[in-house]
Amino acid sequence: MKNKSVEYELRLYVAGNTPRSITALNNLNRYCEEHLKGRYKIEVIDLLVTPQLAQGDQILAIPTLVRKVPEPIRKIIGDLSNEEKVLVGLDIKPLIKIA
Amino acid sequence: MNQKVVKRAGLKALLKSPTGITGLDQITQGGIPAGRPTLVCGETGCGKTLLSVEFLIRGALEFNEPGVLMAFEEKAEELAVNVASLGFDLEKLQKQNKIKVDYVHIDRTEIQETGEYDLGGIFVRLGHAIDSIGAKRVVLDTIENIFSGLSDQRILRSELRRLFQWLKDKNVTAIITGEKGEGTLTRQGLEEYVSDCVILLDHRIENQISTRRLRVVKYRGSIHGTNEYPFLIDEDGISVLPITSSKLDASVSTERVPTGIPTLDMMLGGQGFFRGSSILVSGTAGTGKTSIAASFANACCERNERCIFFSFEESPHQIIRNMRSIGMDLQAHINSGLLKFVASRPTLFGLEMHLVAIHKIINNFKPTTIILDPITNLVTMGSISEVKSMLIRLIDFLQSEQITVMFTALTLSTSTSEQTDEGVSSIVDAWVLVRDIESNGERNRGMYIMKSRGMKHSNQVREFVINDNGLSLVDVFLGPDGVLVGSAREAQELEEATGVALKSHASSRTDREIERKKFVLESKIASLKEEFESVKDELNKTQIEEQLRKEILEKNRAEMKRKRLDQTLVKPSADKKKNPNKKKK
Lengths: 99, 585
Description:
heterodimer; A: alpha+beta; Glutaredoxin; four-stranded mixed β-sheet; 4 helices; globular; B: alpha/beta; Rossmann fold; 3 domains; nine-stranded mixed β-sheet; 17 helices; 25 strands
């Protein structure tokens, strides 16, 4: 019920412009447009450029999507090809039901 | 130092990176392979993390090689506290940029997997950490934890393979730790990927006592010790002992060390034991073994030499108090720093641990003499053969260091006294046996030297006396009924003295008797002589008479002849007068 006021802050960690990173980013953009239109922010972090940021968010795998807001922090790794899993992982499935 | 040797060989031999861990570099002949990953595996709590952290810290402190620790299990702060107990200041090293700790947190509940991924994050973090301090050493502890956090085995395996190859390409010396699995060295079979050097740590419990052991399972391209080596974790970190010395080439000394009991020295050709030899003192309970040992230690300290007294039975204070009662002031030696007491219950840790601990203490204190009192208690932790092998190794080590060692051993009953002694009686150089001699309702101590290699020694049983002034040996008294000791000896001595008086009295009586007999016989001889004289006279008399008669007869006959002749010439009447005589003949 509070969902509408909550802004989603998402971070996608990648390492260079690999095909997998591009797929992940494309998938993410698509899901967000579909389910969170106007309520989200995506930040893409290239660890090849800023490796020191990997430690802070405990990044193991590439690509990793981190939901910073709302709490608690959630992580989804992989190219985000399974829409359902991504939505469950980001905890945005209930919204669809309401919709 | 082994690196130098390898280089000198001219061939392109394996470069090694010294770990700085006591003993491990000896086993591996210089360290773990430089620029390659090494797998350290073992069960929980066997010291994997500690070994790898020590490798990093020693690398940073002693070999000027910065290191990166990627921890998958413990947080950086926890690690810092853990290694602080070993005297390492991890935080300070981190501030000095000598060590970088990166804690990798894996929580399955936080992570959702979808689609393809790789472990690029770890590569990036590791790469960043290595580059930021110019690390030469890397520890991944315990990377297998990834398997619990991520589910795609296929990806993980290929990524690990890539990671280890990447570490090689980075030319860092890495230690990867892994938990021991069922039937495999590690749960996830990491040994498949890390195949240059594998070190297995073990933590075994026997008779409720744990012993840590280390074994180099594999070392590609290098010779290494293959045995299991016990190791110890204490306030100085890990020490491994490559103690199995197969050679028998220790140098020997001809110098003698007195035992502190002058009369015992006398039994040993007057000078005592050889320096660097091993001496076993065995005996039943209460025969004074500890006193002998303490007096040996006391003598050592009085020569201004250092001595360590390992006590497995009594506390130092107890020994000091007890020895004071027989005139030995051990406290003074402790105060002057010559004597060190190390008292521990044998059950404190396993045999091997004792050995490691003894080694460490000896290396620090550098004594010339050590006492182990008693070795019998060590058997509580192991079989006799284990104790024997431990003592052999200890004696080997002591011999190479020219340290004289005295063991005491308790024999349980006199009937088996020649066989027990933890089976070490064959390996020691000298064996002094103290035993109870029970007779006439009292117990006395008898001491003899069963063996003493390379020196003349007495074969006699001596009575061993402990009094206010210390220890001494008295000759046992060989009475007509055998060996006498204690009050029986004193009684016999008295009796003997009485006997002497009696004997002298008796002999004087015999002398007089002889004198009398002589007198009697002499008088007999005199009377016989008289008798003989008279018989001789008698005989002479008859002989003379005979002679006379003969002479007279001859005379008469001649007279007759003459007269007859006259008669025929003058007068025949004269002839008639003499006739009767003539007719008789």
